[in-house]
Amino acid sequence: MTQQVPSTEPELGGVRNFRDVGGLPTVDGRRVRHGVLFRSGHLAHATEDDAAFLSTLGLHTIFDFRNAADQKLEGPDVALPGVRNVNLPLSDPADGAEFWKMVRDGDLDQLRGILADGKGATRMIDSYRMIVKERTAEHSQVLHALAEDSVPALMHCAAGKDRAGLSIAVTLLALGVERDAILDDYLKSNAKHRRYKVRRSSSSASAYSPEVMELLSPLFDARAEYLAAAFETVEETWGGVDAYLEQGLRITPQTRERLRERMLD
């Protein structure tokens, strides 16, 4: 750690967007227990100090939602002794390796073609909707694991914003956390010290020009409209959260209660 900061959100040298999700309020007046659910960006660049800190959390399981392209780009997570690492790839919110290659290597005209005129934000919204509808098996596996034995747990993807953000949101919905609190936690990923570092291959001044950064911003922002699209998809597809959990994710009321017992104060 590079400086003294609150233990619920230490400043880590090689891990972005780390935080404890504890303290969020539920609709029935309870709170998520501190020290049972953490979120972050990938752990591939964790320093020795980072790994030492993470080892103090008593983690049972790390859920890594990155796909093969992410892991090829960043590398595997640092190994933490005694911690189970579960890789559950969720479809990349920006359509995979070829798209990200254009983001890293593409010239201004190419970026305009794929991202301008709202296309970047639309791509993100579509991906959030798709993950909710098509990744029910993965989210079911996560919730069942948490209910059985897999806490404390850390969930991450590459930036810790989209795939991990949705998985955290689904978990919080199952726990009965207030919608506004789920959104507030999601939007914390916009803080400057948490944001994913954009990699551009070109060293030219235009690689990070204001126009390029504006084109890229929908991909690297946590926007309320993205999470709203996910929640709308739950309503449109299943008619509500309870039906989504029971029919979509196969979470029985008994499993949901075990989850709450494990993770709420």
UniProtKB/TrEMBL annotation:
The UniProt record lists the keyword Hydrolase: yes
Enzyme category, top tier: hydrolase
Source taxon at top rank: Bacteria
Keyword GTP-binding attached: no
Gene Ontology MF terms in the entry: protein tyrosine phosphatase activity
Keywords: Hydrolase
EC number of this enzyme: 3.1.3.48
Family to which this protein belongs: Belongs to the protein-tyrosine phosphatase family.
Name of the protein in question: Tyrosine-protein phosphatase
